[in-house]
Amino acid sequence: MAAEKHPHTGHRARLRARFLREGLDAFEDHNALELLLFYAIPQRDTNELAHKLIHAFGSLSAVFDAPVESLMQVGGIGENTAVLIKLIPAMYGKYARSKQGQEVLFLNSAESAGEYFTALFAGKSTEHFYAVYMNHKCKVLKTVLISEGTASETQINTRKLLEAAVHTGASQVLLAHNHPEGVAAPSVADVDETNKLFRMFGTVQVRLNDHFIISGEEWFSMASSPKFKFIFK
Asked: What is the pTM of this model?
């Protein structure tokens, strides 16, 4: 007697073939997530589970941003599946940074810097603070992780900021940190700290050009904002 095929086998093959033929842009969010879940859940209808995840968190991006513990509270999501979901944005971040690392980078506009930082922070669920050191032509010399904190705050290591500026021989610097659980806008504390850092870099003849706030795919340039650009004069 021939072995009975799993009822979802044909559907999975068709969905994979569609991805190879059309790419993910042709997929609705739940179908894209369904396809990903194939690789963690071999014998179950993952379409229903994809719908359940998006309903629970509100959007596809929110599913990927959710903590492992929260994902595992959704019925049908075990640890392996939760880890796979969290792996996707983290892997994209490494991919983007690796691709950027193969190129000579000039961050001479808010748009180019915003795109760079968005990729840099992809997949990070806690606050990170980065400094990008550049020469007088805005060529990136080095990107340095200054500190890492919790989901809502991080402490800035000013000594590390200055040491890296001197070591790289930079004449300009860009700063950026993320708000994993907030919006891409500076807090009162961010504004005060940026004021202090601008003056601090001035003591070693390094110009602080901008401070970016990142939240998901959104970015905010303080130097481009009429409200905050006075800091950088």
From this structure: 0.68
